[in-house]
Amino acid sequence: MTGPIVVGVDGSPTAQRAAQKARDLALRLGVPLHVVSAHTDATIEHVNSGSDQWVVSGADNALYIAEQVVKGLRTPGLKIQAGAAHGKPSEALIDYAEKTDAEMIVVGNQRLRGAKRVLGSVANSVSHNAGCDVYIANTNAE
């Protein structure tokens, strides 16, 4: 395996647990890890503070979430980077994985139980549509 592992995060504790498992896999396999947050908001907001003005977008917010997770995952010997991808979470992860030639996508199993399993979830959609391996991490609280 030479391509990166991609893990999707959204700032939730369960996504954090999936990211930790992805980090452990990347370390064991000696491959890079890409921590990715999806966004669907294409709007841009202008924020003023005195004479300064900032432009903030959904992509900026998604990247910020991924960067915060990356800070907590940094480990010697691991090449890790944050990314943001536009689209619904499952589609965004699959597209990002294809663009980076990822060998694996890691997602959590949080919504794979009960009635929601029938209605669909990110893990279900990714596992059925990804062009690479998919690892569904057990993210249930211990």
TrEMBL record:
Highest classification ranks of the organism: Bacteria, Bacillati, Actinomycetota, Actinomycetes, Micrococcales
PANTHER family in the cross-refs: STRESS RESPONSE PROTEIN NHAX (PTHR46268), UNIVERSAL STRESS PROTEIN UP12 (PTHR46268:SF6)
Annotated protein name in UniProt: Nucleotide-binding universal stress UspA family protein
Family per record: Belongs to the universal stress protein A family.
Origin superkingdom: Bacteria
Start and end residues of each UspA domain: 1-136
Pfam families: Usp
